[in-house]
Design goal:
Structural class: alpha+beta
Number of helices: 8
Radius of gyration: 19 Å
Distance between the termini: 50 Å
Length: about 200
């Protein structure tokens, strides 16, 4: 029963976060950006509190709102399914959305088989690993979508190159590039041979 409660809480949070993303661009508020764009994982009570706050804020004039954001942006990142086949497996670096660092580092996995074949799943790359064992952190659905969106916005090749430039590691496997040929290619010998 606990698993079912957790699943229903997760679904409720997703719905509430979608409502926040819908309300926030149209309201005059002073909430931090990460509270309304899905980067901060909110609990159900916190999300409900944010919604109540936003609903009490003045509505931005529709012409002003139209100039503030592109008309095709709803504030909600695309679904994971929308990234299927778009972002290859590998490592990426994108400008930090939080401002805590210059760059955010990501690992993207793309299963070859099974129900999720072809989907891109993102995890955050953490410091403190070894050259052959990169530490990563699993991300909730919304955070994965934001990570994949950041990679797409930065440009897939540019984000991969930023990872190579900052870490001197292979864009495919994340291992240290140990010779000039590998550094120039952005891939180690083994990964280059796999790419043909």
């Amino acid at each position: 029963m606990t698993g079912m409660t957790a699943m229903s809480d997760d679904a409720q949070v997703r719905d509430l976060m979608a409502r926040i993303a819908e309300l926030a661009p149209a309201r005059e508020h002073r909430l931090s950006r990460d509270m309304v764009d899905g980067r901060r994982q909110l609990t159900v009570p916190a999300a409900l509190s944010v919604i109540r706050h936003l609903e009490g804020c003045p509505v931005i004039d529709s012409t002003e709102a139209a100039t503030a954001a592109p008309s095709d942006m709803t504030g909600v990142p695309p679904r994971l399914a929308d990234f299927a086949g778009l972002i290859p497996a590998g490592f990426y670096a994108t400008p930090s959305r939080t401002g805590n660092n210059d760059l955010d580092f990501w690992r993207v996995n793309v299963p070859a088989n099974g129900k999720w074949a072809g989907y891109s799943f993102a995890s955050r790359v953490l410091g403190g690993g070894t050259w052959d064992q990169i530490r990563t952190e699993k991300l909730p659905n919304m955070q994965q979508r934001l990570a994949l969106l950041a990679i797409r916005e930065a440009g897939i090749e540019a984000a991969a190159q930023a990872f190579i430039d900052e870490t001197h590691c292979c864009r495919d496997c994340g291992k240290m590039l140990t010779d000039e040929t590998s550094r120039a290619a952005g891939r180690g010998k083994v990964c280059r041979s796999r790419k043909g």
